[in-house]
Design brief:
heterodimer, A: 269 residues, mainly alpha, ABC transporter involved in vitamin B12 uptake, BtuC, 11 helices, globular, B: 231 residues, alpha/beta, Rossmann fold, three-stranded antiparallel beta sheet, 9 strands, disordered C terminus
């Protein structure tokens, strides 16, 4: 394990753990509010922001953040003020639209060094100190907001959502949640990749849900599952020359299958 | 009529070219238990959303008396097996969080549960493990925690088994009297709600009947149900 002494590997573990905390924290809210497709949609939209940043000549990753905040606000607005458009249709609109716009913008920018793959499948082994500091700050902010708005978030994202006559507070809490999810996806495209962030948000929740008796328990157990998957996946990727993202998702799937087997054993016992 | 708590004046709304509500007008008085009944598609849920300010009518006005605190209990799902575990304690806390409740009531959580006839030991059970009747009672407990002056329940019996229905209605009636709340029920189960209501509003796009429950069958021309004794 001499590789663990390399700085870039240590940065990968720190970045991965930050991503795992974010995914474990927000994943249960994503599943509870049936917004699993939203993380995929946001990931595709972030690519359009990256394309815009390339044209403007700014750091691509930073271009994704305003695009994510803008689209998450738009999605929320459509959800509440134009409910005739189903959530799935809105998600597909932005998912496909974001990808199409990204292709056009990246082609127009003609940046020879840019590679889509770094954001689609992550580039956790290339994290820098400024990026880690940004990710740490973002994780602290997201965790702080979730802690502060814990019960309002649980209420606004349950089915059916908590509603207050003549007040829009739960709806505004939902908007905050969309922003938090946008930030998580923003961190995710740099670490595990836009196409895989959805798995990190959803699979651990499905794995732990049968073993806990409260929403707080789901969140804590999900964080444990994502952290162990990220650390396990990274460690295995150091031994075998396989992309870390694929191994992280592989560990998540193994956790899920083991849980299914354990549930079967528990039911028969 | 005593103090009006909600006044609905000439409310109409349409969707997809079809009239959902047409020229609805009525007033709810403070402290009464009124029931809106009507078949599926009659516009009951739309009217409730308009009363609660969750939707705007195309025309007409809804006026709510100042200092009215309305708590809305939507129709509870019969099957929420896809939902994540949520403890009863967490479910109740949602109603007392300062962002959603400016003035939490006098109950602590165990007392609120016992007040609606649910054992306090259920606090740490999951919401999903409760029966339909218990869920409805816990939903009412959460409402009481926010000290409402008006309670609106949409189809409170939708997920409740037959044997629990009367007890639940008696609880609603009891709480309405003890807490001097205005209660608005929405139901399509006419014969169950008539005995506890002060007033019945029969809706089917238009307001067909607005009468005392004893006059309902005469006013609508429907047969009075026979009483059956179940063993």
């Amino acid at each position: 394990m001499e590789l663990l002494t390399y700085t870039f590997v240590q940065y990968a573990f720190i970045g991965g753990c930050l991503m795992a905390i974010l995914a474990g924290l927000l994943g249960p809210f994503v599943v509870q509010s049936r917004q699993a497709i939203a993380s995929d949609m946001f990931a595709h939209v972030s690519l359009a922001g990256i394309g815009g940043a390339l044209i403007l000549g700014v750091a691509p990753w930073w271009g994704a953040l305003p695009a994510l905040i803008l689209v998450s606000t738009l999605v929320w607005w459509l959800r509440w003020y134009h409910p005739q458009y189903s959530p799935e249709a809105v998600a597909m609109f932005f998912l496909s639209g974001g990808l199409a716009l990204a292709l056009a913008l990246v082609h127009t920018a003609r940046d020879q060094t840019f590679a889509f793959e770094n954001y689609l499948f992550g580039s956790i082994l290339t994290l820098t100190v400024p990026e880690l500091l940004t990710m740490t700050g973002a994780t602290v902010v997201v965790a702080g907001v979730v802690w502060w708005l814990w019960y309002p978030l649980v209420g606004a994202l349950q089915q059916p959502p908590y509603q207050l006559p003549y007040r829009r507070t739960p709806q505004l809490v939902q908007l905050v949640f969309f922003w938090l999810l946008a930030v998580a996806v923003w961190i995710g495209i740099k670490t595990i990749g836009g196409l895989l962030i959805g798995a990190l948000l959803v699979i651990p929740v499905l794995t732990v849900r049968a073993w806990v008796a409260s929403f707080r328990g789901v969140v804590i157990a999900s964080m444990g599952a994502t952290l162990s998957a990220v650390i396990g996946g990274l460690l295995v990727s150091l031994v075998f020359d396989v992309p870390p993202s694929s191994l992280i998702i592989g560990v998540l799937i193994i956790q899920f299958i083991l849980q299914l087997l354990l549930t079967r054993v528990r039911t028969q016992a | 009529m005593s103090n009006p708590i909600i006044t609905v004046h000439n409310v109409s709304t349409r969707a997809a070219g079809r009239a959902i509500l047409h020229d609805i007008s009525f007033t709810l008085a403070a402290g009464e238990l009124a029931t809106i009944i009507g078949p599926n598609g009659a516009g009951k849920s739309t009217l409730v959303k308009i009363l609660l300010g969750l939707e705007r009518p195309d025309t007409g006005v809804v006026t709510v008396a100042p200092a009215t605190r309305i708590h809305y209990i939507p129709q509870l799902s019969v099957d929420d097996s896809t939902g994540l575990p949520l403890s009863v304690r967490e479910y109740l806390h949602i109603g007392t969080t300062p962002l959603y409740c400016a003035e939490p009531g006098p109950f602590d959580l165990p007392a609120a549960l016992m007040h609606v006839g649910v054992d306090a030991s259920k606090l740490d059970q999951t919401w999903q493990s409760l029966s339909g009747g218990e869920r409805q009672r816990v939903a009412i407990a959460r409402a009481l925690l926010s000290q409402p002056t008006m309670l609106v329940l949409d189809e409170p019996l939708a997920a409740v088994d037959f044997h629990s229905r009367n007890g639940l209605y008696e609880l609603i009636r009891h709480l309405q009297q003890v807490h001097q709340m205005t209660v608005l029920l929405v139901s399509h189960d006419v014969d169950s709600v008539l005995p506890i209501s002060d007033r019945v509003l029969c809706l089917n796009q238009i307001l067909h009947t607005d009468c005392h429950p004893t006059q309902y069958h005469a006013a609508t021309g429907t047969p009075v149900p026979q009483v059956h004794h179940h063993c």
